[in-house]
Design goal:
This protein is mainly α and 140 residues long. 55% of the residues lie in helices and 6% in strands. It has a two-stranded parallel sheet with strand order 1-2. It is extended, with a radius of gyration of 19 Å.
């Protein structure tokens, strides 16, 4: 572990409430994150959604991530992700192919940042395309 990561970890463990808060958050996650309870509006796939053109959610999953079971990830992707020929309003979901671990911030922050920039650029390009398309339709 790099020195700066070790120092942050030691400060967190030594803090008066850090471990208690982390355990509370973990307990809450175990109780709350059990099944897909989000409605179609949040996913961006509702016909009445104001974002019905294309959702701006991107999920980036680790390959063989110890926090999300492969079968759970695969079920979510199958049910909710957009793919070839599917509803483009659905979120983009990607499984890592570069060996980035769940704890990317310790040794893989640069490549994670580069990937994030790419996702943001895709969203901006899609928004520009949508604006330009709307302007062309109004001009006609």
């Amino acid at each position: 572990m790099p020195d700066d990561a070790a120092n942050v970890t030691m400060e967190f463990i030594s803090s008066s409430k850090g471990v208690q808060q982390a355990l509370h958050m973990a307990c809450d996650e175990m109780q709350e994150i059990t099944e897909d309870r989000w409605d179609e509006d949040l996913w961006g796939t509702s016909e009445r959604s104001p974002y019905s053109e294309k959702t701006k959610l991107v999920f980036y999953f680790g390959n063989r991530d110890h926090w999300v079971a492969d079968h759970t990830r695969d079920e979510l992707i199958s049910a909710r992700a957009h793919g070839e020929g599917s509803d483009q309003r659905k979120p983009k979901m990607v499984i890592d192919k570069d060996g980035i671990p769940h704890g990317f911030c310790i040794r893989h922050s640069s490549i994670a940042a580069i990937k994030t920039v790419g996702f943001v650029e895709e969203i901006i390009a899609a928004d520009k395309e949508q604006v330009n398309s709307g302007a062309e339709q109004e001009a006609q």
